[in-house]
Design a protein that fits this description.
about 475 residues, alpha/beta, Single alpha-helices involved in coiled-coils or other helix-helix interfaces, seven-stranded mixed sheet, 19 helices, globular, binds NADP nicotinamide-adenine-dinucleotide phosphate
Length: about 475
């Protein structure tokens, strides 16, 4: 049976897309007292949500987009929560037909920030506001309070912000939502958040792998170690759920579930986007990059098969002081994690410069403290670091984090060295340490690279002792240098 036409202007806000995320976001809005217009491409889902959750609040279902837009109070706020890509464009095209100047379209899907920038510019020309809003926290977050990262105009945020702040997660009374910056800034920050999530998961994975290889711990024993770590600096949602995953026993076989799961990690693309964008901006996000490549390696069966009989020529593990080793791994994990966050913030800073966004890094760390997957205790320390110096060029240069890294360095070096000696892959642990040593180096072999580039491609070089651009005539007798 078709849904009857709703009353015009009866809803505070609308959600199109009654999939996992959209239906939960609509319920969250309704539970917080908003009258929520809902619709979906397949209208059976709209009816199901309206009927099943009627007791939670006011849902105003619509059969089609025309009725959906009509049901919204002006200036209208219509959220799109569908599969990112062409589906989002299809929804926007439909919305445009029925919207009026000053109305706001909000894309809460995981859209690529450059798509958001394009859409925002196109809709601005049509007199509409477009807000790309990153939403983190999965299904549970959408329902109970996610971290929300809206971009778009300040005007749009003034209309939309109070509603989003109300439904977002709250930590110490503060909402995990703030206006991130213009056009695609919100989706950019969400993308980097997801990239950091990749690195965070990988460093936990590397710690787990080392503890099993070196000490022969069972998954449940590693889970106990992680539960202990979760009471200190490493207190985070990811650490907490990892401990749970490791303790899980398969009901059918009685074996640790993690040992029965195929070791091929999937990805949906936001980590890849973070790395691709970092390359465009020339920002080294080695932690996120190695974490993304590690997933790629795990999911390359042909290459892994071809290498199964490769000799490692690695020394067998012989750990004398097991507790000291566990503490070393903890410190290597912590230091690598801080580096990954530091690099992620550098990517946000570079994009803000490139696209003219006014992004407060401290606010980003603050809104990530609740609702989202990377929520963690140490985000408070990151907020404090950026509050102290909003222009901080390196998070690892902040007094607190610098001190922490100094504490961890000896253990970090020991773990990276031992992983190499004993043939254990630890790509983020080791690349983060290399980054640390690279960024603090007085002099890098980049001077030699410049010489090579000038030799084969006349790419020129700068000198440390005088101004100007120089080229050596490598093919000529005596190789004279000329100024360009
Ligand atoms: N799942 C998560 O943890 C999570 C977290 C953060 C962000 N996100 C993002 O949230 C968005 C929605 O994810 P989800 O997990 O809720 O997806 P989902 O459960 O698979 O639902 C997809 C929704 O998209 C609609 N759709 C697909 N193609 C469409 C089209 N061409 N035109 C109109 N509607 C179309 C579907 O409508 P039908 O019912 O008619 O097929 C359905 O409502 C995605 O961008 C995702 O990346 C997801």
């Amino acid at each position: 049976m078709a849904i009857p036409t709703p009353q015009a202007g009866s809803a505070d806000i609308g959600v199109m897309g009654m999939g996992v995320m959209g239906s939960n976001l609509a319920r969250n809005l309704a539970r917080n007292g908003y009258k929520v217009a809902i619709t979906n491409r397949t209208s059976a889902k709209t009816q199901k949500v309206a009927a099943k959750y009627a007791s939670e609040g006011t849902f105003i279902p619509s059969e089609d987009v025309a009725d959906f837009i009509l049901s919204l109070e002006k200036p209208r706020v219509a959220i799109i929560m569908v599969k990112a890509g062409p589906a989002t464009d299809a929804c926007i095209d439909q919305f445009k037909q029925y919207m009026e100047e000053g109305d706001i379209i909000v894309d809460c899907g995981n859209s690529l920030f450059s798509d958001t920038r394009r859409r925002e510019a196109e809709l601005k020309a049509a007199g509409l506001h477009f807000v790309g809003a990153g939403v983190s926290g999965g299904e549970e977050g959408a329902l109970l309070g996610p971290a929300i990262m809206p971009g778009g105009s300040k005007w749009a945020y003034d209309r939309l912000g109070p509603m989003f702040e109300k439904i977002s997660a709250h930590v110490e009374g503060e909402p995990c939502c703030t206006h991130v910056g213009a056009d695609g800034a919100g989706h950019f920050v969400k993308m980097v958040h997801n990239g950091i999530e990749y690195a965070d998961m990988q460093v936990i994975g590397e710690a787990y792998d080392l503890l099993r290889r070196a000490l022969g711990l069972t998954p449940a024993q590693v889970g106990e170690v992680f539960a202990r770590w979760n009471e200190g600096d490493l207190d985070s949602y990811l650490m907490e759920i990892t401990a749970e995953v490791l303790k899980q026993v398969d009901a059918e076989t009685g074996k640790p579930l993690v040992d029965l799961i195929q070791d091929a990690a999937g990805q949906k693309g936001t980590g890849m986007w973070t790395v691709q964008t970092a390359l465009d901006l020339a920002v080294p996000v080695t932690g996120i990059g190695e974490a993304t490549f590690a997933r790629g390696l795990s999911s390359a069966p042909e290459q892994r098969q071809a290498a199964q009989n490769f000799e490692g020529q690695a020394e067998p593990w012989q750990v004398k002081d097991r507790e000291a080793f566990i503490e070393d791994v903890r410190q290597a994990l912590f230091a690598s994690k801080v580096v990954a966050y530091s690099q992620g913030f550098n990517e946000i800073q570079a994009a803000a410069k490139e696209y003219g966004w006014q992004i407060e890094n401290g606010d980003m760390a603050r809104i990530w403290r609740g609702g989202c997957i990377i929520r963690a205790r140490f985000l408070n320390d990151i907020t404090r670091a950026f509050e102290k110096d909003p222009e901080l060029p390196l998070l690892i240069g902040d007094e607190y984090f610098y001190g922490k890294i100094q504490e961890c360095l000896p253990a970090w070096r020991r773990i990276v060295a031992q992983a190499a000696l004993h043939g254990a892959p630890a790509p983020v642990f080791s690349s983060s340490l290399s980054y640390y040593d690279g960024v603090r180096a007085k002099r890098l072999p980049a001077a030699l690279i410049q010489g090579q580039r000038d030799f084969f491609g006349s790419h020129t070089y700068k000198r440390v002792d005088k101004e100007g651009t120089f080229h050596t005539l490598w093919a000529q007798q005596g190789r004279p240098e000329e100024q360009w």
